[in-house]
UniProtKB/TrEMBL annotation:
Lineage per the UniProt record: Bacteria, Pseudomonadati, Pseudomonadota, Gammaproteobacteria, Oceanospirillales
Record region (Disordered): 172-196
Species, as recorded: Vreelandella zhuhanensis
Ranges for domain MoaB/Mog: 11-155
Listed name of the protein: Molybdenum cofactor biosynthesis protein B
Function, as annotated: May be involved in the biosynthesis of molybdopterin.
Family named by the database record: Belongs to the MoaB/Mog family.
Pathway: Cofactor biosynthesis; molybdopterin biosynthesis
């Protein structure tokens, strides 16, 4: 019998000075893909490229016990006001270096050496997994199809990030190692995780 996939509560944040709900194709691509995969969209928002507004929204979601996954799109490049990594990195308890590395490897097949201008970011904070993606629809498709689809699937072996954010699975206990400030009741020790 096939093991059922656990549904995750996901939020999507588009970071752009110009996009609206009608023109936000990248955010819509993420919403379409996450819901097609069986996850629940909790909220979708658009904020301008402002480090403090980005940080405030993401911090609020990290603190929300109902949110398990935060996906952002936009602001990860080097132009103009791109500041998503600066806004989000300080909120993370642990960074997922492999996310950016794997994304750039996959992206190289599509945009060649231009992929080095992506500062996409992943990490864990307060038992929430956060992924900051570039703003192009192609990059969002690449990240979802090549990485996030399986890493947010609780059935993916040998390891995935879904099992770190599902309460009944006994998530990794960040607070027992003194690595997460102000832990809460959502944290519990239990099933070991890869690399943990």
């Amino acid at each position: 019998m096939t093991e059922p996939m656990d549904t995750l509560n996901v939020v999507v944040l588009t970071i752009s000075d110009t996009r609206t709900e009608d023109t936000d194709r990248s955010g819509q691509v993420l919403v379409e893909r996450l819901t097609a995969a069986g996850h629940q969209l909790v909220e979708k928002r658009i904020v301008p490229d402002d480090v403090y507004r980005i940080r405030a929204v993401v911090a609020g979601w990290i603190a929300d016990p109902q949110v398990q996954v935060v996906l952002t799109t936009g602001g990860t490049g080097f132009t103009g006001r791109d500041s998503t990594p600066e806004a989000v990195a300080v909120l993370l308890d642990k960074q997922i270096q492999g996310f950016g590395e794997l994304f750039r490897q996959l992206s190289y097949q599509e945009v060649a050496s231009s992929t080095i201008q992506s500062r996409c970011l992943g990490g864990l904070a307060n038992a929430t997994v956060v992924f900051c993606l570039p703003g192009s629809t192609g990059a969002c498709r690449t990240a979802w199809d090549g990485i996030l689809l399986t890493q947010l699937d609780s059935r993916h072996k040998p390891c995935n990030f879904a099992n770190l954010v599902i309460p009944e699975r006994g998530r990794h206990d960040w607070t027992s190692q003194g690595e997460s400030p102000g832990g809460d009741a959502r944290k519990s020790s239990g099933r070991p995780v890869a690399g943990g």
